[in-house]
Amino acid sequence: MATPRTDTASFHAYLTTLQYPRIVALCGAGLSASSGLPTFRGAGGYWRTHEATSLATPGAFLRDAGLVWQFYSYRRHMALTVKPNPAHYALAEFSRKVPGFQCFSQNVDGLHQRADHPRESLQLLHGTLFEVKCWSENCGYREENFTDPIVPALALPVDGKDPTATPDISDPKVPLARIPIESLPQCPRCKRNALRPGVVWFGEQLPMQVLMNVENYLNDLAGVDLILVIGTSAKVYPAAGYVQEARQRGAKVAVINMDANDVPAGGWEDGDWMFKGDAAVIVPELLR
Ligand code: BJW
C-alpha cells in the first residue's frame, strides 16, 4: 500500500495546478467534534447505555419512540447550544471562492448552515435535526422546526436541589422519564401519527434530490480533482462509497482525521494525503 503525504506544501502546490478545480469535501461527525458535539463511533459513541447508532433506526422508534425522541431532543438542544468552528467557516468560504466545490455532509447538526454555507454547494446526505416529518410516508408532512424543546414532555429535567441546573440526561445515572407516544410531537396534517426527526436512519433511502445532485456531480465529464475526507470514519454507505467513486473520476484523496488509522476503504494510493489532527485546525490551513 502507498504511503500518504503529510505536508501542506505539496497539497497547496497541487491546488495551484488546478485551472477549474472540482473538489469535494465528504464530512462527518469529527468536523463538529471541536464545537463540542460527540461523534458516533469510538469513545463518545454512546448515549446513556445505548450505542448512538442503535437509536438511529426505524426499529428503535417503533420499539420506544419516547426514548428515541429524548435522544434527538437532547441532540437538537446541544446543536443549538454550540457554535460552528473554523472548519465550518473555511468550507463555507471555500465554496464561495471555488465554483466547482461541493460539500457532501453526513452531519445533521445544522452547523454548516449556521456558518452560512451556500445552500447550492451543500448536500445534506443524512437530513437535518431541524426538520421533522410524519412517521407515515403516505402522509408526507414535513416542516422545519427549531423549537427547543419541541413539546413540553421533552423539556430537560430540572435539578431537585438547583432549579437553574439541568442534569445531563446523556449520563445513565440521571433518571429518564418514560414518555408516552401521545405526549410526543404529533402530525398536524394527518393527526394520526407522531412526527419523527427528519434524519436518515439505517435502512432508509437518502433524500432523492441529494442523491441525484451527488451522482450528477461525480459523473460529470469534467471529473473530480480532489476529495477531502473530513472527520468521518467513512464506514456508512452510500457516503463511504463516494471516496472510491471520486477516485475513479481521477480524484486524489486527502484525509483529515484525529485517528490516522481511519483510512478510507481501498487504502492509500500514490499522491494521497493524510493530515492527522483536529479538523477545526487543519481544514482552515488547507483551504486558506
Ligand atoms: C475527528 C475529530 C476531530 C473525531 N477532527 N476528526 C454497502 C455495504 C454495506 C452496508 C451498506 C451498503 N450500502 C448500504 C448499507 C447499509 C447501511 C450501512 O452503511 N451500513 C454500514 C454501517 C455497514 N446504510 C444505510 O442503511 C443507508 N441507507 C441506504 O443505503 O439505503 C438504501 C435504500 C435504498 C432504497 C430503499 C431503501 C434503502 C443510510 C445510512 C444512514 C446513516 N445514518 C446515521 C444517523 C443519522 C441521524 C443521526 O445523526 O442520528 O448517520 S448513522 C451515523 O453514521 C450518522 C453519521 O452521519 C454516519 C457516519 O458517521 P461519521 O460521521 O463518520 O461519524 P463516526 O463517529 O463514525 O466518525 C467520526 C470520525 O471523526 C472518526 O474517524 C474520528 O477519528 C474522527 N474525529 N474527532 C477530525 N476533532
From TrEMBL:
Keywords: Metal-binding, NAD, Transferase, Zinc. GO terms for cellular component: nucleus. The active site is at H126 (proton acceptor). InterPro entries: DHS-like_NAD/FAD-binding_dom (IPR029035), NAD-dep_sirtuin_deacylases (IPR050134), Sirtuin (IPR003000), Sirtuin_cat_small_dom_sf (IPR026591), Sirtuin_class_III (IPR027546), Ssirtuin_cat_dom (IPR026590). Residues 1-288 form the Deacetylase sirtuin-type domain. GO terms for molecular function: histone deacetylase activity, NAD-dependent; metal ion binding; NAD+ binding; protein-malonyllysine demalonylase activity; protein-succinyllysine desuccinylase activity. Zn(2+) binds at C134, C139, C187, C190. The keyword NAD applies. It comes from the Eukaryota. Belongs to the sirtuin family. Class I subfamily. This is Deacetylase sirtuin-type domain-containing protein.
